[in-house]
């Protein structure tokens, strides 16, 4: 059911915005490390320390930052559920997440156990604080949640649970690398060897996949003028994916990389996951293709790129389950590249071009007690041409990174394309922020010239 968004419940601008500023910064850091890797002669495989570092620059620095910020913004507006103490939660979680990600990634590259210990402390603090603040809000405001917000809340709750499992596994593995705890020789076994697989599966198919799907049920119909998602999908996709992940975990599928003797529950669960996301990608692609406003905007292209990547990743995932010996290491890198850079980063990058201009416009409006002609329109904060230019650089980077999984010499041009994309995104956000700050100054000057009674600002202005 299509719902109205309660923008008057929007938290202060800085609550979400500081997280969004992490996106171009960590994209650029990823480009620098991958360019360095491209110039070095070490193998471009999933276990290369630089690849592990970039995997977390992207999953924590870009995706977690954007999604935690977006959740603090979208939850109150779309479901009337407020995160506890947003003005304290936001800076604390942001600082711990940013510094924790830098420590974890540097720990991988320098193989320095102390940095892994610092990462464990900071990342544990960041995610515990965030998950408690959201869960507290979900419980406190459960009676005031907006009608029809059930479908987004089911996906958000399950995504949060998947995040907790991913983070728990990640902290355990980082603690092992930091020497905080160890696994006696007798206890070590296939389970330990397979933990990274389980960690990644819950991280990408659980948290990232479910959160993007859950938020898309809201933002695609509203911002892309499409039909709403089929009720059958919004009611069943998230619980089904979570159930399949639980079957994969409990059936021990992750203990041995896909093997010819995988059991039926393991094969069924893994194929079911690939099929579920294939159906979601095709449905979203169809909704975007038949949307009421035919001319695609830059955000539409980002969603298209995300859905094509997810569709290819689902087919690749299914192939990997049934043909596990077919080029395993190339398949793993390609799957990670399509899911992280192709699907998740595209969806997040696209959503930023809707959320950021709207947030700046909304907060400028909140500062003026009356309509002021010089307040820019939403679309004037970031022009379509600038957003499209960045999309082209992003798409080139994704295609080159996918090709680099087969032809590693393409890693350097891919890293350069990513650097251009990150630079263009930073310029677009910086220009929008400058326009907002200039507008705020003009509003303040205008109000200063008005008689006191007329100048009272609108509620919620900060
Ligand atoms: C608190 C947060 C996290 C910590 C401390 C953490 C820690 C780790 C560690 C230590 C490894 C290396 C495993 C090994 O020892 O071989 C790893 C691998 C990995 N992690 Fe995380 N991680 C975290 C969050 C995430 C999230 C949220 C995602 C994705 C959504 C993610 C994706 C990955 C990927 C893709 C790998 C590469 C392993 C592979 O190729 O299988 N991590 N993580």
Describe what is shown at a glance.
This protein has 462 residues and is mostly helical.
How does this model look, in words?
- By secondary structure, this protein is an all-alpha fold.
- It has a single domain (7-182, 192-441), classed as Cytochrome c oxidase-like, subunit I domain (Cytochrome C Oxidase, Chain A, Up-down Bundle).
- It contains 13 helices and no strands.
- It has helices at residues 13-20, 22-39, 49-79, 86-110, 113-140, 150-178, 190-224, 231-250, 264-289, 298-322, 328-367, 384-404, 411-449.
- The protein is globular and about 80 Å long.
Task: Provide key terms for this protein.
462 residues, mainly alpha, Cytochrome C Oxidase, Chain A, 13 helices, globular, binds protoporphyrin IX containing FE
List low-pLDDT spans. none
Instruction: Report the end-to-end length measured between terminal Cα atoms.
Output: 33 Å
- Estimate the helix proportion, in percent: over 70%
Task: Tell me the CATH topology.
Answer: Cytochrome C Oxidase, Chain A
CATH superfamily: Cytochrome c oxidase-like, subunit I domain
CATH class: Mainly Alpha
Name given to the CATH architecture = Up-down Bundle
Order of helices and strands: HHHHHHHHHHHHH
Number of helices: 13
Number of strands: 0
Note the beta-strand portion: under 5%
Categorize the overall geometry. Answer: globular
- Overall average residue pLDDT: 89
Bound molecules: protoporphyrin IX containing FE
Query: The biggest beta sheet, please?
Result: none
What is the count of distinct domains? 1
